[in-house]
Design a protein that fits this description.
10 helices, single chain
Length: about 240
């Protein structure tokens, strides 16, 4: 009789472009409203994006206007990605500790997280260094009172957060279609031809694998089989 695959210690999810906000459109949408010259193919933190657009450090008024625009965009994009709720419910039923991680300002993150179940924990923000430093992942696991890195998984469509997970010693699953690399809102994604979607998905998948992630799926509807595969790899002795 085959051995039972080892259980996972904890799962961490990227918020924007992972659990909610298909395409991770909150930051680009806010930036394009305030600064139409902003290119949404840039991979920046919120503050870095603002500084680059201004060419200097923002004033207090500019920062407040930016955070307001982010919160408004977050409210518009606060929709669950396909499969998110189903996967979370299954994990909750199996008593797997879970939390979400985000780097947007607090108000925008809270607005984005509105559709999520109340039991799902927000990772502590603390004094963590910015991604891709491992601090945010470690703080999230500490907040869940997880006692070991073994069996901890990060799922995200954000390359810098995935690199943070790799630096933290976690298993990592990249989300190709619903993350920032494809950067299309759901309606825009569906409006693309099949060939266009395949091209974008392929390029995102290659980028994530080059980063070093352990598995890549399109979106959370495919998470179950992916976790089963990781369990088998762990059972064979593979380490992240």
């Amino acid at each position: 009789m085959p051995a039972t695959p080892p259980a996972f210690s904890a799962l961490l999810f990227g918020l924007s472009g992972g659990l909610v906000d298909f395409g991770a459109r909150t930051l680009p949408s806010a930036m394009q409203r305030l600064y139409p010259q902003y290119r949404d193919d840039q991979v920046d933190t919120a503050l870095t994006a603002l500084e680059k657009s201004l060419g200097r450090m923002p004033s207090n008024d500019e920062r407040q206007a930016f955070e307001q625009a982010l919160s408004e965009a977050a409210c518009e994009h606060a929709e669950l990605t396909p499969g998110a709720m189903q996967q979370l419910q299954q994990l909750h039923q199996r008593h797997v500790p879970c939390a979400w991680i985000d780097e947007l300002p607090r108000d925008a993150s809270i607005a984005l997280a509105t559709p999520l179940p109340d039991w799902l924990t927000a990772a502590p923000t603390g004094a963590a260094r910015a991604w891709p430093a491992p601090d945010a992942c470690w703080q999230a696991l500490a907040g869940l009172q997880v006692g070991q890195l073994d069996g901890c998984v990060l799922i995200s469509g954000e390359p810098r957060l995935l690199q943070s997970g790799l630096n933290a010693g976690l298993w990592t699953i990249g989300l190709a279609a619903c993350g920032s690399l494809c950067s299309h809102a759901p309606a825009d994604w569906q409006a693309l031809s099949l060939a266009e979607r395949d091209h974008l998905r392929t390029q995102a998948t290659l980028t994530l694998y080059r980063l070093g992630v352990h598995a890549v799926i399109d979106q959370l509807t495919e998470l179950g089989p992916c976790l089963t595969d990781l369990s088998c790899r762990r059972q064979k002795g593979e380490k992240p």
